[in-house]
Design a protein that fits this description.
homodimer; dopa decarboxylase, N-terminal domain; Aspartate Aminotransferase, domain 2; Aspartate Aminotransferase, domain 1; globular; Aromatic_deC (chains A, B); transferase activity (chains A, B); lyase (chains A, B); pyridoxal phosphate (chains A, B); pyridoxal phosphate binding (chains A, B)
Amino acid sequence: MDIEQFRKAGYQAIDRICDYYYALQQSKFSVLPDVEPGYLRPLLPSNAPETGEDFSQIAEDYQKLIVPGYTHWQHPSFLAYFPAGFSFEGILGDLYASSVSNPGFNWLASPSCTELESIVLDWASQMLGLSSSFLNSSGVGGGCFQNTASEAALVAIIAARSAYKAAYPDTKLEDMRIYTTTQTHSLGLKAGVILGLSVRALEVTREDNFSLRGDTLRSALEEDKKKELHPFILIATIGTTSSGAVDNIAEIRTVTADFPEIKIHVDAAWAGMALVCPEFRELCFLEDINAIADSFSTNFHKWGLTNFDACPLWVRDRKYLTDALDITPPFLRTAQGDAGIVVDYRNWHLGLGRRYRSLKLWFVLRGYGVEGFQKHIRKAVDLNKFFVELVTSSNMLSLCAPPSLALSVIRINPKPSASNQATLPEDALNDLNKLFYGKLSARKDIILTQTVLNGQFCIRLAIGSAFTQEVHIRDAFELITHEAKLALEAWEQPQIGA
Amino acid sequence: MDIEQFRKAGYQAIDRICDYYYALQQSKFSVLPDVEPGYLRPLLPSNAPETGEDFSQIAEDYQKLIVPGYTHWQHPSFLAYFPAGFSFEGILGDLYASSVSNPGFNWLASPSCTELESIVLDWASQMLGLSSSFLNSSGVGGGCFQNTASEAALVAIIAARSAYKAAYPDTKLEDMRIYTTTQTHSLGLKAGVILGLSVRALEVTREDNFSLRGDTLRSALEEDKKKELHPFILIATIGTTSSGAVDNIAEIRTVTADFPEIKIHVDAAWAGMALVCPEFRELCFLEDINAIADSFSTNFHKWGLTNFDACPLWVRDRKYLTDALDITPPFLRTAQGDAGIVVDYRNWHLGLGRRYRSLKLWFVLRGYGVEGFQKHIRKAVDLNKFFVELVTSSNMLSLCAPPSLALSVIRINPKPSASNQATLPEDALNDLNKLFYGKLSARKDIILTQTVLNGQFCIRLAIGSAFTQEVHIRDAFELITHEAKLALEAWEQPQIGA
C-alpha cells in the first residue's frame, strides 16, 4: 500500500468510524453480537494469502465478518464489567501514536514520548488531587503507564518484595505474604500465582459494606507475625469490582503506622477517576491515600474517557521501582541515561518496549478539560442514582450493597407483600437469581455481569459509557423487571407443581 | 468533540501522516531529534486546562511541540536496536481497533477479537513453518498475543515454574534456576528479578559465534544437579540482540533429551521473522525448534511489518499456560467459558484486559501476503550483505562476529598496513571504539547502538526499516568511515604528543 492508497483507506476508515458511532448513538444494533462460538473460522481461509490483497477487499471483509462479532463496549446499553474508556480524542491520539510505531523504552528512543508521559501524568495526578510527592516533576516520585491495573499491582508487589528483601535479606520467599481482601480484584490472587507468593485474603463483612477495617488488618498482621510469616504489602481497593466497596484507608493508616515495613498499593482501577470531583474525595479517602500509599493506580481506560489502554501507576519514590526492575545491558546504555539526566521508563515496568500512550491522554485531557471529566463522572453517578430510585421503588428487586458511585448490585428479593411467599431462604434466592441472570444473559440487547458477595449471588450494573442517557437506564430497568417477572413465574411454576 | 468534528480531525490526521511519510521517504529531516533532555516541560502548561480546548489547537501543538522530539524509527537511516515494525495496513488495523476500545479478555467480551486472534496466529504460525502442534486449531497448543518478548519469556518461565512445582512440589523457589546464556537479552535477567529466581547465564565463546553449545549446557546441568539446584527452563535465542547469534538447538535437543524436566522457551524476538523464508529455516534450527520447544515467541512489531505492539507467544500445550495463570472470579465467569467451548485469553497472560491486536496483523498478512513478507526479509538481508562487503573492503573497520541476517557488528580495527601502528591491544581498541561511538552518537543523521561482546566494545548496525534502500546503507557506511577516520586521528594525536 503506498501513501496515496493509505490516504484513501484512511479517509474510508474515518468515515466508517463516524457511521458506526451514528448507528451506535441511535442503538441501531444490539450491544451483544448474534454469533456462536467458532463462528469466524469457517468464514476465513485457513492460511495467509500467498500474494498481497487489495485493501478495499480487506476493508469490506472487516465490515462483513468482524464487526458483526463485536461486543459493543461503547453501546449505551453496555452495563457489564466496568465501562471501557472512549473518546474521539482518544482515537486520534492512538492514530497519531500508531503512525510513528515507536517503542520508546529509553529517553533517546524517543524524547517526546518519555517527556510527554512525564508531563501528562503530572497533569493527571494533579487533576485527581494526588499529593505532589507523586509528581514526576518532584524528581523523587513519579508516574508511568503500565499495561493494565493487574500489571500495575504486580509491579507494586515486586517493588515491595524487593524492598522487603533488601531490609530483611534472610526472608524466604515461601514465608512472604501479599495481603488483599476477599473482595480484591483477582489481580491480587493472580499476582500471587505469577510470583509464587502466598496471598492472604482478609475477610470483609456485609455490615461493613465489604470494606477492609483496621481491626481485621491488625489481627491478621499480629497473627502472621507470630507464625513468623512476612506480610510485606497490602493491596487496598478504592471501588472493588463486585460492589464498589472502598477499603477504610483511614483505619489502615492507623494500623500500618505500627507496621512500617508493610507497603501499601492502592488499586483504584475504576473508582479512582471519581477523584476528579472534589465531592467524592473524602469518600475515597484521598487524604489518607496521600499520606500512606506507596503506589496508586487508576485506569483512564475504564471511566476516564481514554481508549484502551491507559493505566498509570504513581509511586512516591521512583527508586522503589528502579531498585527492583533496572536491568541495563550494554546495548541499552545511552549517554543521557548514563549521565542520569533522563528517565528511562523501561526500568519502571515489566517489559522493555512500551506503547506510546501519553499522546492520547494529552489529547483527552485537553479536549475535555477538568470540567469535562467532572461532568462525565457526575453524569454516570446521577444516572446510577436514578437507577437506584427505580430499584428502591420495585417490589421484586433489591440492592445487595449500598450503591457505589456509578455501580449498583442487585438481585431479585421479592417483598413478602408482592408475592404469596414469605421471604425466601438464601439458597433458594441464589438459585432464583441464577435463573434470573440466565434469562438476562440470554438477551442481546443488554449486558450485565454476575458476581457473588459473601455467598450472595447478585447482578452488577455499571454505568459509564459516554453515550448512556437516562432513557437507556429506564429501558434497562424495564427490561430487568420484565425478566425478573419471568424468572419469578418460572421459579414459582415448579413450586406449585411440587 | 462530536462525530463531524472527529471526521474533520480524522481526515487531517490521515493527511498529516501522509505528509510525514512523504517527508521521511525523502529524508527531509534527521533520524534523531535536535532536542535536549527536559525540552518539553517549559513548553507546556503545568496543569490540564480547566475547560476543553478546540482540537485544531491541540493538533497544531502536536505538530509544533511533539513531532520535533521524535526519534524516527521508520527513518531510512534508523539502524539502531532492531527495527520497529511498520506498515500502512498496520496503522489502519490499529485505527479500527482503537475505535471500538475493547479490552476483550473473555470470548464474550468480544467474540471477534478472540476468534480473529486465534485464526490469525494460526496463519502466522504456518507462515513461519512452526509445527502444527502450535496451532490454535489443534485444540491443544495455540498462540496468543503478549505485550512484548520480555513478557512472553516471563510467561513461559512462570508456566515452566508452575509445571516444575507441580511435578516436584517440595522444591524451594530459592533453589530454582532459569538458564540463559551471557548473550541472552536482558529479558532473562529481568524475569529473574521479577520472579525472585536465580538466573544462570551460560558462557558462550567467540569461537562458537556466541552460540550456546550442547556441552556447555550439559556440564551446567550436571553441576547444578549435583549441588541440588533445580534448573527448570532454558531460554534459547534465535538471533541475540548483541550479534544475532543463534543457539545450537540441535545440540540442545540432544542434551535435553536426557533432562526431560527442563522446559525450552525459544526467544526469536527479532530473527524469528526470517523463518518466513525457507532458505533461513535450517540456519534457525526450525526442525529442532518444532521438535522440542515448549514455547516460541517472535515480534511482528520488530521485523514483521506490524506496528508496535504485536508479539505472539505459541505453546505446544495451552494447559501449560492456563494451569499457571487461570484465575476466574465470579465476575469473570461466562456461560461459554463455564461450558469450556471458548478460549478466554486472559488466562494465557499476565494481565486481564488486553489490546485488540489481531486486526492489524490480519490486515498486514493480507496486505503483504507471504510473498510480501519474504521480499521484506530478503531485502534487509541483501542490504546487510552489501554493508558487509563495504566493511570487508575497508582498511579501518572489521566485523566483530559473522553477520547475522540483517545485523552486523563492527568496530575500528585498523589493519597494520593502513596505519603506522601494529595491531592495537584489546584495551586500547576498546577505548578507541568508545571514542568512535561517541562521535557517531553525537550525530543526528544516523543512529546505531553500542554493545559489548565478551569484553569487546563494538557497534551494531541493524537493517529493517521499510524505507531503507541501498543508497542509505552506502551513505551510512561513508559516514561511519568518516567518523572512524576522525576517531583514529583524534586517537593518534595524543599518542604522538605523548
